Amino acid sequence: MRIGAVVSRKDDFNSSMDKDDVLNKILMLLVKALYEQVEVIVFPGLLGCFFKSDREYVESILRLSIDFKSLIICPGSYFETLNGKKYHSSCIIQNGRILLRQRQIYLSKWEKDEGFSRGEDAAFVNIHGFKTSLLISTDLFYPQVSRYIAMSGADLVLSPAAIREQKYCFNISPLWENVQQNLFFGVESGFKGSYKNMNFNSLSIIHAPLEMTERENGILEIERNNDCNLIVANLDNEKRKNAIKKFDVLSKLNIKLYEDMLK
Amino acid sequence: MEAGIGNFLEMFFKIKLSGKKIDKHLIKINYYKKIDKKKDIAAVACVQRSIKKVKSVEEYIDILHRFVKEAKEAGCDFIVFPEYNFLDLYGIIPFSDKIRTLFSKNTTNENSKCEAQTFDKEMYHPNLEKTAENKELSPSKGEDKTIFNILYAISFPIQSALEHIMCSLSAKYDIYIYTGTYLLREEGKLYNCGSLISRDGKILGRQKKLHLTDFEEDMNLSRGDKLNYFDTDIGRIACPICMDATYFETFKIARNLGCDIVALPIANNEEYNFYRALRGIWPRVQESYVYGLKSSLNGNIAGIKFTGKSGIFAPAPLTEKGDGIVNISKNYEGDSLIIGCIDIKRLKAQRLEAEYYGDVNENFERDYYLKTYKGSEKNEK
User: Which residues belong to any copy of the CN hydrolase domain (chain A) (predicted)?
Assistant: First the structure.
């Protein structure tokens, strides 16, 4: 499966932009994805926050998606309001339909300060034979979420990310850690810029178990210092399964040991 | 015949590694004067050392002593030795070179894939049947049986000697010592295990390895079922082993137990790869907000090469360059002692400030164990 992650440069998307400007940028990226024969595209975290409401944003993407029938779109993340509660959420869309909805399960300090609520479970959808789930921003830092996703049999995790002032050590993001200890594919699209006077700096990276990557670094593709606004990689699930045979982390779990871990 | 060889080797090692011989050699070391230990910042040391086949226990003591002395002279409160810290004693086995030649055909060059994957494959039998309560282990192949019996026979004398040496050094130097690992013989089983020793030379406790490598499973080593914690005057410490750091669960449990420091002995029998090394203790420290102390065994024995960097790790905001590294060895081979400071007070303050740490989701976590791990137990090795 061919997958793409949008690379945002600092303030590519910002609150001073008109919503039509944002939609035009998204449209251009969808066209580019189609040209690159991408089957799944992931947009950065917080993208929907530049719209008046989550509903307006999601409906706009749903309309756009009808013109890109075969393309599966994760439109980044947005703030969902429901019954007086606010969630940091994302979804997966294809051809005018929402295939999967996900709410962030854990909260960062700033999200707690802003009064966000937590999602309660992880959802899954089958995309071209890949069992797929979403891991939104803060959940990247809570490895129990990705372990649950992996133990549910996920092959692929899409991650719209917006991490505050994250300094990347050795080009390693929290998703890298989650991929290497669970051995699914991980695709993150990172937001760079400011929102409500907070600075965010996340990278866009396509991850795989390091046994199957050319340089044994666990990275299939990563954003570079150029003008490219979409990174693309082919995800070979058979190759991943062979890599797992070389280093099958999950087969060595000491399950009885974990019984009281989260009690 | 096999039992005879085992009995002979056990007796041989008991004599070669006797307490009397150890005491006679250690008596030459002077005591250090004790000082008040109440302080927020502690200095710690992680040994990185090459295996050196020794011909006597005195030679082995000298190797260990050199590191402890250097750590103490640098003002350290705690020193950590690596996984399989006894392989040097392989040299004491009579005709060990001939044994190696005899069984070299059984050695496969299995690549290890993680923080750990160990060790001298010639010393172990790959196809042992589990004998939970039976103290007489009986592998099937004649030549491999000999190898296993060597290992089984020498495990207890080696553990006794290693603990005896380290207890004496701890007391003499007034320093906490993690012994590095040895093979623990218990109710007919063998465990990869290490001991933590107090400043006054008492064993605070032992920790068995909780997640085994393929090779260790093939050798029929058993795994532990509990993570212990140890209270010291520099903080609460957990001592998982090597492969245990591949699993976030180990460090999550350590934090639940209130640990601030995790000591991790490793022995990687593979060519060094930066990213492979990075998927062990480093991310676990970032996730769990503890200090991580990694001690690596290096060098060659019986045709097996070990590589790895010892290092001291902390949550990224606590480190000078923001990279999560307090100090790390420059090389992945050879001897060195990695020294650094850990500040538990600052660590605790940082946990409160951390943007992405410490949240709890009761609804998600309520049935976590059942929904995550149940169903995979049948696949558990």
Answer: 1-237
Cβ separation A109–B323 shorter than 8 A = no
A169/B380 touch (CB, cutoff 8 Å), yes or no: no
8 Å CB contact of B211 and A254: yes
Q: What is the pLDDT of residue A15?
A: 75
Query: For residue A167, what are the β-bridge partners?
Result: none
Q: For B372, name the nearest residue in chain A, comparing CA atoms only.
A: A148
Residue A105 lies in a domain: yes
B92 vs chain A: nearest CA distance in angstroms?
34
Name the strands in the sheet holding A125-127, side by side, starting at the edge strand that comes first in the sequence.
A125-127, A130-134, A156-161, A185-190, A205-207, A219-222
Instruction: Show the domain range for A227.
Output: 2-258
Return the CATH number at A217: 3.60.110.10
Question: What's the length of chain B?
Answer: 381
Q: Do A246 and B113 touch (CB under 8 A)?
A: yes
What confidence score (pLDDT) does residue A167 get? 66
Residues in chain B with pLDDT values less than 50: 102-103, 105-114, 116-143, 378-381
Query: By percentage, how much of chain B surpasses pLDDT 90?
Result: 62
Let me know if residue B220 belongs to a domain.
yes
pLDDT in tens, A23-62: 999 999 999 999 999 999 999 999 999 898 999 999 999 9
Overall number of domains in chain B: 1
Length of chain A: 263
Task: Report the 10 Å Cβ neighbour count for A261.
Answer: 19
Residue A224 belongs to a domain: yes
Residue A176 to chain B, least CA–CA distance (Å): 9
The shortest CB-CB distance from A110 to any of B243, B322, B355 is to: B355
Residue B57 domain flag: yes
Between A148, A167, A177, which is nearest B371 by CB?
Answer: A148
A205 reaches B (C-beta below 8 A) = no
The answer to whether the Cβ–Cβ distance between A121 and B377 falls below 8 Å is no
- Based on the structure, what is the number of domains in chain A? 1
Q: b/e for B71-89, b at 16 or more Cβ within 10 A?
A: bbeeebbbbbbbbbbbbbb
- The closest CB to that of A148, out of B227, B246, B368, belongs to B368
CA distance between the termini of chain B: 33
